[in-house]
Amino acid sequence: QQQVKQSPQSLIVQKGGISIINCAYENTAFDYFPWYQQFPGKGPALLIAIRPDVSEKKEGRFTISFNKSAKQFSLHIMDSQPGDSATYFCAADHSGGYQKVTFGTGTKLQVIP
Amino acid sequence: EAQVTQNPRYLITVTGKKLTVTCSQNMNHEYMSWYRQDPGLGLRQIYYSMNVEVTDKGDVPEGYKVSRKEKRNFPLILESPSPNQTSLYFCASRPPFADEQFFGPGTRLTVL
After folding, report:
1. d(C-alpha B40, C-alpha B36), whole Å
2. Chain A nearest-CA residue for B100
3. Which tops the pLDDT comparison, B96 or A61?
4. Phi, psi of B85 (to 5 degrees)
5. CB contact under 8 A, A89 and B43
6. How far is residue B31's CA from residue B50's CA, in Å, rounded to a whole number?
7. Residue B77 DSSP code
8. Do B106 and A43 touch (CB under 8 A)?
């Protein structure tokens, strides 16, 4: 029933390296694709988001790449830092909407010094 | 401070004993939602509400009830909890015509 597939489940990256997390969705009705970051003991918080009318969005060290035809999007974390160690969730949503939201299964990122 | 609050934060209960997890937001948001988080399954939506007295099922509504009598509150009710409802629960809210959801701190529920 999972409509958003996320990989990998866990990821270990050296400090300064690039972290890449991938998501794929099925329902083309989704038009808002956020990434949420969750630290242990906390609720998820919005990190960065994209709409399908653009192929890439960058905010600081975080970039979303979006491939509408393949129904895939990915999060790239450049120059990964130990403070980026967290669980990351992608989601497929409806912009400004009052509808169901579907999240991916999460990726636990560990950035080692 | 603008926030989503949940109570209790931790709860251990026994099978069949009715419980309510409260959720409250002070941001005048219309959209509110409940999720459960389980290892390997991510966040799964249980119920969501578009406004007072308007609710709809998410992906995993079985065994749960909700009500939305006031805009600020969205309690989650487990009338007969079972061990498979042991999970970490999050409430979230979203402003009208906006995209970002604001999550509460979570409630860890254990059903024995």
Report:
1. 12
2. A46
3. A61
4. -95, 5
5. yes
6. 5
7. E
8. yes
